[in-house]
Design brief:
By secondary structure, this protein is of the alpha/beta class. It has helices at about 5-10, 45-50, 70-80, 90-100, 145-155, 170-180, 230-235, 245-255, 255-260, 310-315, 330-345, 390-400, 410-420; strands at about 20-25, 35-40, 60-65, 105-115, 120-125, 130-135, 160-165, 190-195, 200-210, 215-220, 270, 275, 285-290, 300-305, 350-360, 365-375, 380-385, 430-440, 445-455.
Length: about 450
C-alpha cells in the first residue's frame, strides 16, 4: 500500500522506509519554484506508529554537488543550514531560495531522505556564467587584503569575482557601509560598473562618495630604470587632486609608461594604486604604485607591409631609432605620424600606420611589423577664397599650383597662404587665413575654402 505521509511521521516510523523527497528549483532570479515533487514509499506497519508523537527530525548529513567555482564548504555556509539543527522541508526550500538569490547558480535542485537519527539533504547546483571582478576604489581606510578578508567572513560566496546579478553586490555594499560606520567614517557606498567603451561589463567597483580624499604623496616602488626626478615630474599634477583609483591608474599609464618606452622597457607593468590615510589626517592620502619594469629591449628589424606608394627603403629613412639601440617606441610612433603626413601630401588622406612588436626575449630585441593602410587617393576639387573682394579672390585662385584633379596635398596651403600677401590689400595689421576642407568620400575629392581676415589678435 502506498501512503503519502507527513515528513515528521516518516522519521518516526520504526519500520517505515522513506526513499526520497525531491524538490527542483531553477534559479531565475525571481525565486519561484518551478517544480515540486514529493514521492515517499512506506513499508507496512506505519499506521500504528504514526499515531504516536514523533521525535523532532535533525539534519544529520548534507552534501553539495555540481559547482566548479565554489567548494562544498562555501556553498554549505551559504545555505545557512546547520548539522544537528531541526530539519523540515521548509528549511530546505528556504536554503535553496538563498542559493538561487545569490545569482551564483543557474539551477538549484535538492533532495532529502530519512537517515538513522534524522534526515539528510543533497543540493545539486549549476554554476551561473555572468560573473565580473569585484574592485574597490577609494576605501583607503582598509588595506585590500584586510577588506577582502572581512567581506569573506561577512558574506558567503564572496570572492575575487562575484555574480553580476543576484543579492551579493547589495550585501557587499551593506557590509562596507557597516565597516565604515564602525570606524566613524561618513559617506555613502556606491557601485559602479567598469568596462571598455561599448563593450561588456568586466567589473563592479565599490567606492565611497561624500568624502574628499586629497593626494599629498605619490611613491613608486621597484623603479630603477627611470630617474626619480623624471617620475616626480610626470606625476606632479596628481598632487592636490582628489584620489580616485581609476583616475590615478589611467594617469600613470598615460604619463609614466612613455618614460619607460623611451628607454626600451616595453613590458613595464603597474600594480593597482594603493592609498593610505596619512597620520593625523582623515582626508589626506599617500599613494603607492608598484612597478614591474621588466627587461629593456633593443630595436631589431623593421618590416613594412601594405605600402605601394612609397618603397620600404624610403619609409625606413623616416624611422629615427636605429637597430641595436634601445627600442624607443615613443619616437617610432612620432616617426609613423610623420610618414602619415607624407601620405597626406600625396592625396592619401585616410592613410594609417600601426606596428606590432615581435619580442625575442633571449636576445632582448624587438622587431617591428609595420602595417600600412594607404586608403584611397583623393584629388583637388574646388577652391573658394573668402574675406576679400571678388576680383582679388579670383587673382588669388589663379596663383594656386594645386589644380582640380591633381592629388590633394593637405600641406600645400601653408605655402599658398604665405605667398598670397602681395595680392592682399594694404592693412595696418598682418593678414591671417583659416582653412576649411570639405572631403567627399563618394567622389574622392576635397573642396577647400580659405578665408582671409586682418589679424587683430582676437
Amino acid at each position: 500500500m502506498r501512503t503519502l505521509a507527513p515528513f515528521d511521521r516518516v522519521l518516526a516510523a520504526g519500520r517505515g522506509r522513506a526513499r526520497l523527497w525531491m524538490v527542483t528549483k531553477r534559479a531565475l532570479g525571481s525565486g519561484r519554484i518551478l517544480a515540486l515533487a514529493l514521492s515517499v514509499l512506506i513499508a507496512g506497519g506505519l499506521k500504528a506508529q504514526a499515531e504516536q508523537k514523533p521525535p523532532p527530525g535533525r539534519l544529520v548529513a548534507m552534501r553539495i554537488f555540481g559547482s566548479r567555482r565554489y567548494s562544498e564548504a562555501e556553498i554549505v555556509r551559504a545555505t545557512e543550514l546547520r548539522l544537528g539543527a531541526k530539519a523540515a522541508p521548509q528549511a530546505f526550500q528556504e536554503a535553496a531560495d538563498r542559493l538561487a538569490a545569490t545569482g551564483a547558480f543557474s539551477d538549484v535542485n535538492y533532495t532529502f531522505s530519512a537517515k538513522p537519527g534524522g534526515v539528510a539533504v543533497e543540493f545539486r547546483v549549476t554554476d551561473g556564467g555572468d560573473f565580473v571582478a569585484c574592485n574597490f576604489d577609494n576605501l583607503v581606510w582598509f588595506s585590500e587584503m584586510e577588506l577582502r578578508a572581512q567581506l569573506r567572513q561577512m558574506i558567503p560566496l564572496f570572492a575575487e569575482e562575484i555574480p553580476l546579478k543576484g543579492d551579493i553586490p547589495a550585501k557587499i555594499e551593506a557590509a562596507i557601509a557597516h565597516l565604515l560606520k564602525a570606524r566613524g567614517i561618513p559617506g555613502t557606498v556606491t557601485i559602479m560598473g567598469a568596462g571598455e567603451m561599448g563593450g561588456a561589463l568586466r567589473a563592479l567597483q565599490f567606492n565611497v562618495s561624500g568624502v574628499r580624499l586629497v593626494i599629498q604623496q605619490v611613491e613608486f616602488s621597484g623603479a630603477q630604470a627611470v630617474e626619480p626626478t623624471a617620475l616626480i615630474a610626470a606625476i606632479q599634477p596628481l598632487l592636490g587632486a582628489d584620489y580616485d583609483q581609476t583616475f590615478v591608474r589611467e594617469f600613470v599609464r598615460r604619463n609614466v609608461t612613455p618614460l619607460y618606452a623611451r628607454r626600451g622597457y616595453l613590458k613595464v607593468a603597474f600594480a593597482a594604486p594603493r592609498a593610505s590615510v596619512l597620520a593625523g589626517s582623515s582626508q589626506e592620502v599617500a599613494v603607492t604604485i608598484a612597478i614591474a619594469e621588466g627587461d629593456p629591449y633593443n630595436l631589431g628589424e623593421v618590416h613594412w607591409e601594405g605600402n605601394l606608394v612609397f618603397p620600404s627603403g624610403e619609409l625606413a629613412g623616416h624611422i629615427h631609432v636605429l637597430p641595436a639601440q634601445p627600442a624607443d617606441t615613443v619616437q617610432v610612433e612620432k616617426d609613423l605620424e610623420e610618414i602619415q603626413t607624407l601620405y597626406n601630401t600625396k592625396g592619401y588622406l585616410a592613410a594609417q600606420l600601426n606596428f606590432k612588436p615581435a619580442f625575442d626575449d633571449r636576445a632582448r630585441t624587438v622587431a617591428l611589423d609595420v602595417q600600412v593602410r594607404e586608403g584611397d587617393l583623393y584629388t583637388m576639387g574646388k577652391l573658394e577664397i573668402a574675406g576679400v573682394d571678388p576680383e582679388r579672390a579670383e587673382a588669388l585662385k589663379k596663383t594656386s599650383e594645386l589644380l582640380p584633379g591633381q592629388p590633394y596635398s593637405r600641406a600645400y596651403w601653408s605655402t599658398f597662404i604665405s605667398k598670397s600677401g602681395r595680392l592682399l590689400p594694404a592693412s595696418r595689421t598682418p593678414w591671417k587665413a583659416s582653412q576649411k576642407e570639405d572631403v567627399h568620400p563618394d567622389t574622392k575629392t576635397v573642396d577647400v575654402t580659405l578665408t582671409f581676415s586682418p589679424d587683430t589678435g582676437k
